[in-house]
Write a structure and sequence with these properties.
The protein has 334 residues and is of the alpha+beta class. Helix 2 (66-85) crosses helix 3. It has a domain at 92-304. The protein starts with 25 loop residues before the first strand and ends in a 15-residue tail after the last strand. A hairpin with a 5-residue loop joins strand 2 and strand 3 (54-56). The chain contains 8 helices and 13 strands. The radius of gyration is 20 Å and the shape is globular.
């Protein structure tokens, strides 16, 4: 049994628990939380979708039952809001776990919304932006997301890598928010090739890689630690996020898991998860500069950097970077 057994991908069921919705128990969950939209004046601003069309943030809502909305989701939002509004400090393991759950809801919610939108608004028969079949294949992603409402025990591993950095803030609150993600569909077995989300909220920059079993965290945390005490400019955060996304796309194995669920119908019953697939000696395939450059510009074009971006990131073997001064020292931008 998995978390999709009673889950129906339509507006008549809760996106989180799958409960059938009625006038009595129905509500809507904002994919990007209302408190973020208020504080950063996003209500009428627009987000670029996977097909490069734009949608106002206020319209990014998905079906949710009142119980999930008023209890587990509300509690999570309150905890995340308090964390992100305080002075920057390094997160605890529990903070990282909560941020993983929060990032899972945002990315899944966005994909869920895109499933309901036509890929060509002028020709609705062309199908949705995200095929329903793709979302149906995100069994594991959705399963782990339900840790928002029930206890999970990931035995001797984390199914994600999450990086938290300090970022510069500006007087204009609209400039203190960024969102971008990276999603590739269907190259590894029955799941997505890669799923990654990056959010910049006030002075917190959050990058979450899903289902890599914590390998990026294990091998590359030191690259982020170099910037302790150095708030990152938005374009530096963008570069880190793009490099993280591309690295994730190079993962050489398809993570699979076994879950022990004593009582699936009880939200108090702890689910035990262990990994059952492991990488060979090479966890990631070889880095290709041309492919990375294409990914960088595909993500960057939806940001507001404009003239800051060159035509190319490479001149021969020389790599243009905003992260260091050319001598290996972290670059402080103001």
């Amino acid at each position: 049994m998995n978390s999709f057994d009673k889950h129906h991908l339509n507006d008549n069921h809760c996106f989180l628990c799958g409960e059938l919705l009625s006038k009595k128990n129905r509500s809507d969950e904002h994919v990007i939380p209302e408190w973020i939209q208020r504080e950063h004046n996003l209500w009428d601003k627009k987000l670029a979708l996977l097909n490069h069309t734009l949608i106002p943030y206020r319209q990014l809502k998905i079906p949710c039952c009142r119980k999930c909305n008023n209890e587990s989701l509300s509690q999570m939002e309150n905890e995340i809001s308090k964390f992100l509004k305080r002075k920057f400090e390094s997160p605890t393991k529990q903070d990282e776990y909560k941020l993983f759950q929060w990032a899972s809801k945002i990315l899944y919610g966005l994909l869920y919304k895109e499933m309901s939108l036509a890929s060509n608004l002028a020709q609705r028969a062309t199908g949705s932006i995200v095929p329903k079949e793709f979302l149906e294949n995100l069994l594991t992603f959705h399963h782990f997301m339900t840790s928002i409402q029930r206890p999970f025990n990931f035995v001797n591993f984390t199914p994600y890598s999450i990086f938290i950095v300090e970022t510069l803030t500006f007087d204009d609150s609209e400039k203190n928010f960024d969102y971008f993600d990276f999603v590739t569909i269907g190259n590894l077995g029955n799941e997505a090739d890669a799923l990654m989300l990056a959010l910049r909220v006030q002075h917190y920059g959050i990058i979450c890689v899903f289902q890599d079993n914590g390998f990026q965290k294990q091998f590359f945390q030191k690259q982020f630690d170099r910037f302790q005490g150095i708030p990152l400019h938005p374009i530096q955060f963008l570069e880190l996020a793009c490099k993280t996304a591309y690295k994730h796309s190079l993962l050489t194995f398809s993570p699979r898991y076994s879950s022990l669920i004593p009582d699936f119908n009880s939200n108090n019953s702890e689910i035990t998860v262990i990994p059952i697939t492991f990488p060979d000696e090479n966890i990631w395939a070889s880095w290709d500069n041309d492919t990375y450059e294409k990914l960088f510009f595909s993500i960057a074009k939806n940001t507001g950097f404009g003239a800051l971006l060159p035509d190319s990131l490479y001149i021969g073997e020389k790599h243009l970077t905003w992260l260091d001064d050319g001598h290996g020292n972290p670059l402080k931008m103001i």
